[in-house]
Hints:
- This protein has strands at 2-4, 22-23, 31-32, 37-43, 51-53, 60-62, 80-85, 88-93, 102-110, 113-116, 122-133, 136-139, 142-145, 151-154, 157-158, 169-176, 182-189, 197-208, 211-214, 217-229, 232-234, 244-250, 257-265.
- It is mostly beta strands.
- It folds into three domains: 2-120, no CATH class; 123-189, CATH 2.40.50.140; 197-265, CATH 2.40.50.140.
Amino acid sequence: MRISTKSLGMLVLVLLAAACGSANDPTGMPASNGGGVIQGTGMGSGSQSMRVQVPSSSAATTIDATGGFILTDVPKGAAALQFSGGGQNASLATAPVVPGEFRHLTLSISGTSVIEHSEQTETEFEGTVDAIDGTVLTVAGRKVTVTDATTIRKHDAAATLADLVVGTPVEIEGTLNADGTVTASEIRIEDRNDAERVAFVGTLTQITGNTLTVGDRMVNVGSATVIVKGDTTLTLADLKVGDRLLVRGPVQADGSVNATRIRVLPREDDD
Length: 271
């Protein structure tokens, strides 16, 4: 996808999108139920201080000195980003955001165009299997292709495509293609009950045993909780106060969240 503009420099994109229903995190990082995160990387010449926003929404921020930015409170279904600054204006069309999604974009800047390298766009989201057509699943409205290279797991055990039926709750990791379909690299079959599930972003302010305080929520970490940063798997001991976290999991009767997955996001002081 290309953007016509009058000379955008370098763009290293770290985008964090969250669906509607957000609340303010008292540490300063907004948190959202059902939202998603998009982290990105760009190549080109510098564009620090350029403003980035989602059209027709309150989601807006500024690219920082490292070329990254965090954009929160993006409504689900948002499919464009607006870039402005220095008399420049451009918008990038991209695949619609789905609830609970984590996305990593790779962009390059060349002259007056911005290209999203769709073959390098990674996505991670959850939902139930709504339809199965051979090796193609429909999850959260997206077509998800299962290949011979796709790893399917249930808990810590290997599973197969035959273990997936309509109604199976899953978490998908894979490549988001230019046409909005996904080629799955990993599918995790989840155990779910009728509890409300949330996906929110907040700053880690306290660690007490296996319980975290993230924004204004208590988060319980169990043996099945997956903690990652980039492509690296972490342990609870690797987390530290000040980390910005994307947390997913069901809400308990006391309002706490039993985390199924925690992703560590870049801090403002990261290089």
